[in-house]
UniProtKB/TrEMBL annotation:
Molecular function per GO: cytosine deaminase activity
Pfam families from the UniProt entry: Amidohydro_3 (PF07969)
UniProt keyword Hydrolase, yes or no: yes
Gene3D superfamilies assigned: Metal-dependent hydrolases (3.20.20.140), Urease, subunit C, domain 1 (2.30.40.10)
Keywords: Hydrolase
Protein name (database record): Cytosine deaminase
Domain Amidohydrolase: residue ranges: 41-401
CDD domains, alphabetized: Bact_CD
Domain of life: Bacteria
Matching InterPro entries: Amidohydro_3 (IPR013108), Metal-dep_hydrolase_composite (IPR011059), Metal_Hydrolase (IPR032466), Metallo-hydrolase_Enzymes (IPR052349)
E.C. number(s) listed in UniProt: 3.5.4.1
């Protein structure tokens, strides 16, 4: 039978080589060597890596691309970023939020990032950002899955109208219950907010994803309450603790108790390497803490851990560019986790693992899955992270929606090659 698209001679993330991927309509019809059928378009992967699309399970799209409005974050701290966002909120217009978010989605698509979970602030009584991102969600649906989290940035109890606004946002169609317990006025209020938000999620049948313990304070332990509530309410498998940076300052004995509780309760974790190592440790001189949660220890126990972008050119972070390979690259260095196995895992932490955490349907590279995938200028997942590889082609529902020429350099050196392909420097013999 003829196919709409066939990708020839691909390497897959699981190590299979010489694979052809045949697409019929919006679905993958076959993945096997030597597919000989005719196709409307044929792409020769030439042995390069084809991956499911990148997934960002933690982002703030209502703030993205707002860097410098109304000023820059001078201290580089989380708290100044929150204060700066408070100054920006009254200046927001729905048109501006929509325009910046759509521009970011354009960039994301070009980088093969086709699914994003974005927290959206609900502490503005106008719910302007909620309305804007619900509009964006509908607009980008043909090419990007946008999942929204109702996020009380100023605190569920600390902000007088947050509880009412969170219910309003969920009634409007926001997908996930969010929170920020460590920003409440007291530890008791933080714990109470975790209980209240988990009960809302249970009552509505929704997922819950809390900014949890984004702090250098080892006594910020709201993730313990989150695990207890997930266990009590049966929320296992749909509960996430994001950031969890206080864990880098906790003593090992307490962590040895805490991590099994997360596993038992079915709580997943999302670390945000670029932002966590930038915002945390700002009160340290030397030695200075790296700020990342305990990724290797959670992995070893079997707790699902994903890596998120979190911010891009906003009050908290002046860099970023929708590049999930950049996120994985930073995690490898900052944790550090430089074994071949750990680097390969990091690729999964920006693809399959966050896809599972978000509950994305039809994700993967098997027959019957959505025909969504990315052709990378790299030989395998490890090389993709090393190079932060060029996305040569991005396919959504069987249609090529973005293409980038390969990164190649011309040389004018006597006696040397005339050009360089960075992907040609893959190790010839390396343990995977």
């Amino acid at each position: 039978m003829p196919f709409d698209l066939v990708v020839k001679n691909a390497t897959l993330p699981d190590g299979r080589t010489g694979q052809d991927i045949a697409v019929a309509g919006e679905r993958i019809a076959a993945v096997e060597p030597g597919i000989a059928a005719e196709a409307g378009r044929v792409i020769d992967a030439a042995g390069r890596l084809v991956s499911p699309p990148f997934v960002d399970s933690h982002f703030h799209m209502d703030a993205t691309l707002s860097l410098g409005i109304p000023r820059l974050n001078q201290s580089g701290t989380l708290l100044e970023g929150i204060a700066l966002w408070g100054e920006l909120k009254p200046l927001l217009t729905q048109e501006a939020v929509v325009e910046r978010a759509l521009r970011y989605c354009d960039l994301a698509v070009s980088q093969g990032l086709l699914a994003v979970r974005s927290h959206v602030d609900i502490c503005d009584d106008r719910l302007l950002a909620v309305e804007a991102l619900l509009h964006v969600k509908a607009a980008v649906k043909p090419y990007l899955d946008l999942q929204l989290v109702a996020f009380p940035q100023d605190g569920y109890y600390r902000s007088p109208s947050a509880a009412r606004n969170l219910d309003r946002a969920l009634d409007m169609g926001v997908d996930v219950v969010g929170g920020i317990p460590h920003f409440e006025r007291t530890m008791a209020d933080g714990a109470a907010s975790v209980r209240a938000l988990c009960e809302i999620a249970e009552r509505r049948g929704l997922m819950v994803d809390l900014h949890c313990d984004e702090s250098d304070d080892p006594l910020s332990r709201h993730v313990e309450t989150l695990a207890a509530e997930a266990q009590r309410l049966g929320l296992g498998g749909r509960t996430v603790g994001s950031h969890l940076t206080s864990m880098h300052s906790m003593d090992n004995y307490y962590v040895s108790k805490l991590l099994p509780l997360l596993l038992e309760a079915g709580v997943a974790a999302i670390a945000n390497p670029l932002i966590n190592i930038t915002l945390q440790g700002r009160h340290d001189t030397y030695p200075r803490r790296r700020g990342l949660t305990r990724i290797p220890e959670m992995r070893a126990l079997g707790i699902p851990v994903a890596l998120g972008q979190d911010c891009a050119m906003d009050p908290w972070y002046g860099l970023g560019g929708a590049d999930m390979l950049d996120v994985a690259h930073m995690a490898v260095h900052a944790v550090p986790m430089t074994s071949r196995e750990a680097i390969r895992w990091s690729f999964g932490a920006v693809t399959a693992i966050p896809a599972a955490i978000m509950g994305l349907e039809g994700y993967g590279l098997e027959p019957g899955c959505n025909a969504d995938f990315v052709l990378l200028q790299a030989a395998d997942p490890i090389e993709a992270i090393r190079l932060r590889a060029t996305r040569l082609a991005v396919v959504r529902r069987g249609r090529v929606i973005a293409e980038t020429p390969p990164r190649l350099a011309r040389l004018g050196l006597e006696g040397r090659p005339t050009g360089v392909d960075p992907a040609g420097y893959a190790p010839r013999v390396a343990a995977n």
